[in-house]
Amino acid sequence: MMKILLILPQGAIYRKSGSFKKSLRYAPVALTTLAGLVPQELNAEIRIVDEGVEELDFNTEADLVGITAITGSAPRAYHIAQRFRARGVPVVMGGVHATLMPGEAAKYVDTVVTGFAEESWPRLLRDFKQNKMERLYTQSPHLSLANLPIARRDLLKKEAYITTNSMQATRGCINNCDFCVIPVAWGRRMYFRPVEEVVKEAAELPGKALLFVDPSPIENVEYAKSLFRALIPLKKKWVGLATTKITKDPELLDLATKSGCKGLLIGFESVTQETLRLANKRFNSVNDYSEMVKKLHARGIAIMGCFVFGFDNDDKDVFQRTVEFVDRIRIDLPRYAVLTPFPGTPLYKKLKSEGRILKDNRWSLFDAQHVVFKPAKMTPEELQEGHYWAWRQSYTAGSIFKRLAGSRCLLQVLVPANVGYREYARALPGYTEEVLTEGTWIDVNEPVGGLEGRL
Ligand code: B12
Ligand code: SF4
User: pLDDT at position 441, please?
Assistant: First the structure.
């Protein structure tokens, strides 16, 4: 019987021993999806290890290892690959970082898979069985998300997550925000699962809660409306991600509410309109933010609001202005990121051409919590300290109380989540470069190209 070991490596902050607690953690989707895609005829034994909730045993028996990685966890992925390959176990890597940097990944693993793998992964496994696995598998030009097998949630440590009912209806995004990886890695287009298949899967999941990991299913309004309409009879409650556009279409918002939407992760990004223009996120309107939040709260929808620090327009006042704004408009769960030039993005190209990337290739630091470039209107240290300050300030008891008292949405989830982020905020400064790079491996002296590093 073929033994397949699928691994989700985590950076130090998010590892089991780190500061990202269960109250913030829901089940990951990539590996359960890949496990579901393993062809039946291979009769394989599959194990999933998420380093966020368990320790990886490097001696685990396996015929083939599959690793997924985002940029911040790529060095950890390479380290893990090196350990298994030293034992003679072949390693395959896929996911966003391998898609952005296939040439780099190929130096550390046997096979690289780029793009969405619904067609290529089963093909790879059949090739492996016949001893003819290739070095690179790319996304099929005819990729379809119809008739897909159901994700193997049964392989997860169920008790380690707030919910294992994570799922998806769409992939990709049509927008083109300057700092975002999604349009670069997967193209500016969306892929859709047939609505009836999504609803069937949702109906069969246990309990009332659902979590959609789609970057923004509402970018195709007609698809989103038909999905929401079809979800209404299930009487489930769901949280997901969406752009600010969701509040601009009253029918869409009403349908989302009726379908059981209880929480949305929204990228507000900045409280300055000019910054949004520079970041190519013009559809966000700062003047509307307060009204938007009121509209969502009035429908019982809580908001995880994401903000980014370090844009060229940001000066040292940006932290205080943002924190005050977040308190004033009552964002239920604020999340701050440091602007990060992920490889391949327009932002990366701009900063690289200006000689402003300070930590190129030090991917462990590319976790959106650490400064890896030279900001325009402050020093890197001021940006890092201001970022830590904003996290701490937004998660003081006073701020949590003010925000939640003003919102009163989904309190059974948001009180523990706020407490979880309070701990996370306090722990963040402890994750220094030394801590983050420990247990990871990448030969930083070796010059690694950007997208030109493709195979
Ligand atoms: C949901 C999500 C989250 C959730 C994760 C919840 C969870 N439990 O899954 C939360 C909100 C917690 C989160 C956090 C973060 N996230 Co996030 N997240 C996403 C999002 C929107 C969806 C991920 C997903 O599940 N997709 C569905 C699966 C099925 O798709 P997939 O992973 O791409 O897998 C497919 C293929 O890539 C391929 N594949 C993947 N792995 C492998 C492995 C093998 C062996 C093979 C063969 C194939 C393969 O096959 C799959 C099927 O086709 C993505 C955007 C995106 N569209 O991917 C961002 C994204 C991955 N996140 C991103 C970032 C930056 C972060 C944070 C660092 C943000 C922050 N500010 O702190 C943190 C890091 C957390 C951590 N643990 O390290 C970036 C990564 C960029 C980069 N280059 O690193 C992305 C791309 C968003 C973006 N716009 O830039 N995230
Ligand atoms: S709207 Fe969100 S997912 Fe789409 S490109 Fe912009 S940041 Fe990325």
Answer: 72
Q: Compute, in angstroms, the gap from residue 317 CA to the centroid of ligand 1.
A: 31
Residues having CB closer than 6 A to ligand 1 are 10-11, 14, 26-30, 33-34, 66-68, 70-73, 92-97, 113, 116-118, 121, 166, 168, 180-182, 213, 215, 241, 337, 342, 367-369
- The model's pTM: 0.96
> In the predicted model, what is the mean pLDDT of residues 114-123?
98
> Alpha carbon of 21 to those of 18, 124, 246, 419: distances in Å?
8, 35, 29, 10
For the cut 50, the answer to whether the pLDDT of residue 455 exceeds it is no
Strand stretches in 252-362, DSSP E: 261-269, 302-309, 333-338
* Residue 232 scores a pLDDT above 70: yes
Nearest-atom index, ligand 1, CA of 342: 83
For strand 237-241 and strand 136-137, is the pairing parallel, antiparallel, or unpaired?
unpaired
User: Which pLDDT tens digit goes with each residue over 413-445?
Assistant: 999 999 999 999 999 999 999 999 887 876 555
For residue 238, the surrounding DSSP H or E stretch is strand 237-241
Comma-separated ranges of CATH 3.80.30.20 domains in the chain: 165-434
Output the pLDDT for position 361: 87
Q: CB of 427 within 8 A of CB of 19?
A: yes
What's residue 447's pLDDT?
47
Residue 440: the pLDDT is 82
pLDDT for position 439: 79
For ligand 1, pick from 37, 164, 213 the residue to mutate: most ligand atoms within 8 Å of CB.
213
Ligand approaching nearest to the C-alpha of 28: 1
Residue 123: partners with Cβ closer than 8 Å, 6 or more residues away: 137
Query: How many angstroms does the Cα of residue 1 sit away from the middle of ligand 1?
Result: 30
CATH 3.40.50.280 maps onto the chain at 3-137
Tell me the C-alpha distance between 67 and 210, whole Å: 26
Domain 3-137, classified CATH 3.90.550.10, yes or no:
no
Superfamily of domain 165-434 in CATH is tm_1862 like domain (3.80.30.20)
